[in-house]
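Supplementary material to the annual report.
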Amino acid sequence: DSGVTQTPKHLITATGQRVTLRCSPRSGDLSVYWYQQSLDQGLQFLIQYYNGEERAKGNILERFSAQQFPDLHSELNLSSLELGDSALYFCASSVEGRKGNTIYFGEGSWLTVV
Amino acid sequence: AQSVAQPEDQVNVAEGNPLTVKCTYSVSGNPYLFWYVQYPNRGLQFLLKYITGDNLVKGSYGFEAEFNKSQTSFHLKKPSALVSDSALYFCAVWGLQTGANNLFFGTGTRLTVIP
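Predicted assembly:
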């Protein structure tokens, strides 16, 4: 158990809908990351937050947004969903979010868009 | 862009034999390299990392990795494979891609240990 908690574990939704994925980082970790894992794209970095502020942005679509709250939990919002958004979404956390910090992953949220 | 490559999609090894999962990197400056493992229907688990110092890094579950600067490689090794080591292994590098300085992953290598 990495200490990173993600909910829900599985969800199925229709195209055009909006979903929210939730993540609680490890105790004491200030930085949260979101990654997407799909068969065709592999593991893609989406976005990173540190202590409530966006720190780095990767291959995140404009239809997707995220935030980190004062209690350090984070949410990833996915809207106008398309079939291609079906993937495993990982949240991860690290102490400071600095280069070389070990990043610990949750078990992911499986999203299926039908 | 800085990146890692895992040249083998699949590696098969007999139980009890040594295993190697290959990773090469392309970074400017000193590389920060990581290995993670993903078991079926589970998240990624951290195995080990190289930041600086000894080129041989020891990690979890008996795994180790050797950093080789001249060959720009960071291969994952284990002296004696277990059936329970069968999983998907990812090499990763802390680097810069698409303007983001973060941890970026290779495409993964599926390891199958044959009883």
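Chain A has no helices and eleven strands.
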